[in-house]
Amino acid sequence: MPATFPSLPGAAWPVTKRPVTATRVEAHASGREVRSPLYPAALYEFTLPVEGLTPDGSFPGLGTASLQALLGLYVQCRGTWGTFLFTDPTDGAVANQALAAGDGATTVFPFVRTLGELTETVGWVTAVSRVTVAGVAQAGGWSLTVPNLLTFVTAPAAGAVIAADFTYAFLCRFMDDGVDFEHLMRGLWQVKSLRFRSTTP
Predict the structure, then answer these.
(1) Where are the domains of the chain?
(2) 3-class DSSP assignment, residue 77
(3) pLDDT tens string 6-60
(4) Do residues 176 and 81 lie in contact, with contact meaning Cβ atoms separated by under 8 Å?
(5) Residue 74 to residues 17, 28, 110, 177: CA-CA distances in angstroms?
(6) Which helix (H) or strand (E) holds 67?
(7) What is the spatial distance between Cα 48 and Cα 60, in angstroms, rounded to a whole number?
(8) Residue 14: is the preceding peptide bond cis (ω within 30°)?
(9) pTM of the model
(10) Sign of torsion, CA 180 184 188 190?
(11) Which residues contact 28 (CB under 8 A, 6 or more apart)?
């Protein structure tokens, strides 16, 4: 299980979330182009300033050891090498999300979330509170297979819509092999820009 990004009461605004894609473009003499997407799904880059970190609770609103929590995670990941789970407070839970329709044979379904007209697989499911098949809540007969699969003991009937209430996180890596932790005054630190990017589990 990857480490979890800590709760940071001193995180500030603005926070940026940038969808990133990649496309290969081949131009022909006729002027036409052939375009091929390189990523199966978008990745997301996050940037946030952390204006307040405390090592000893000198500033109660910043937690008791928020400096150690963030610094420890960064060192544990060795910069850009390791991964961690980040829960976006604006994009981390869905209710009654349709996942798929059964076909009478398939027992494993990926957890997805819908953005407008797009439905995409989520990175890492952290908890599942409810599963329904054809609108009927399932007390058992299913399990969460890490990181993002719903597995049934018995295949749902053909045409039966499978839905779920669940929470999820983004599996991420830091984008820099060095981050400046600034000591502003006794008991108060900050990080002006913390950058990390989602990756595929």
Answers:
(1) 3-87+172-198, 93-169
(2) helix
(3) 999 999 999 999 999 999 999 988 989 999 999 999 999 999 999 999 999 999 8
(4) no
(5) 20, 46, 30, 9
(6) helix 66-77
(7) 21
(8) yes
(9) 0.93
(10) negative
(11) 34
